[in-house]
Structure formats: structure tokens, C-alpha cells
Design brief:
Layout: E1 5-10, H1 13-23, E2 27-35, E3 42-49, E4 55-62, E5 85-89, H2 92-104, E6 110-113, E7 117-123, E8 129-135, H3 141-155
Parallel strand pairs: 1-4, 5-8
Antiparallel strand pairs: 2-3, 3-4, 6-7, 7-8
């Protein structure tokens, strides 16, 4: 089953829009504006086509009852930055171009070889860790069976 969209809060819609359109290459495809449940509050919900079968969406919240928007999905929960993150698929050729686009946009980039894939990481304007990931080999039936055993071993 595919994911239709992932929705997250943004604390800076213009910066988020620039990042996801110019630096990620996604297209804004829908904006919905409406009231929140609190009197006088309103929200804008923006949807970006990620180029696959799904979208990423952001809530631009304008509701004093909610207080300051905390959008850092790991840090705001007291977790290390690398725990909760968004990973997008790309080819190895695209990985280098994506890295250069992030660097040219003024973002720090970390690159990691995970043995079965290579990834680059940066923080978006909401302090959400974003990843481009390129598979470097096919995971075999033997890989899958070994990993099922590893999960069972840890669960004991």
C-alpha cells in the first residue's frame, strides 16, 4: 500500500516552500486554506508532489491557542536528530546533483554509505532531517531472511 502523503507542521512557509521546490525539486500541487477549531485561527495546508506516487504536505498554522510551532520532529521530542527523518529515493547519479544543489543553497550536507545504499542528509528549514537515498545493491531473499532473524533475536 502506498502512502498518499505525509503531513508536518512548518514554522516558516516561505523557507519551506523554497527548500522543497528549489532544493528538492518538488512541485507545489495543492493549497487548502481554512479555519482551525479555535476562534480566529486559520491554517494553510500545502501539498508537494515528490515525483513518486506520494506527496509531502505542510501545515502553516496561524492559531494563537497553539502557541509557538515546534516543527523539529526529533529534537522537539528530545531525540537525536537522526531518529525521525524523511528519506526520498534517487539514483546514484542524482545523489551527486542533489548534494551539489543543497550545498549551493547554503545547506550543510552529510554523506553516509550504508552498505546497501548511499545517503546524503541535511536539515530543512523546520529542523527536520531530510535524506536522499540511492540503492547500491538489490536486497536478496537471503538478506531479507537474515534480517527477519535479526529482528526476532532482538525481540527476545
Amino acid at each position: 500500500m502506498a502512502i498518499h502523503h505525509i503531513a508536518l507542521a512548518t514554522r516558516d512557509l516561505p523557507a519551506t516552500h523554497r527548500f522543497y521546490t528549489e532544493l528538492m525539486g518538488f512541485e507545489l500541487v495543492k493549497t487548502v486554506i481554512g479555519p482551525t477549531e479555535n476562534e480566529g485561527g486559520w491554517a494553510r495546508h500545502v501539498f508537494y508532489d515528490t515525483g513518486g506516487d506520494g506527496m509531502i504536505a505542510f501545515w502553516d498554522l496561524h492559531d494563537e491557542a497553539l502557541g509557538p510551532i515546534r516543527s523539529a520532529i526529533s529534537a522537539d521530542l528530545g531525540l537525536p536528530q537522526w531518529v525521525n527523518h524523511l528519506a526520498f529515493d534517487c539514483s546514484l547519479d542524482q545523489l551527486a546533483a542533489n548534494r551539489d544543489r543543497w550545498l549551493d543553497g547554503g545547506f550543510d550536507v552529510v554523506e553516509i554509505d550504508h552498505e546497501f545504499c548511499r545517503s546524503i542528509y541535511t536539515d530543512d528549514p523546520n529542523v527536520i532531517l531530510v535524506e536522499w537515498c540511492a540503492d547500491t545493491r538489490v536486497l536478496t531473499a537471503e538478506d531479507r531472511a537474515a534480517n527477519v532473524r535479526r529482528v526476532a533475536e532482538v525481540a527476545r
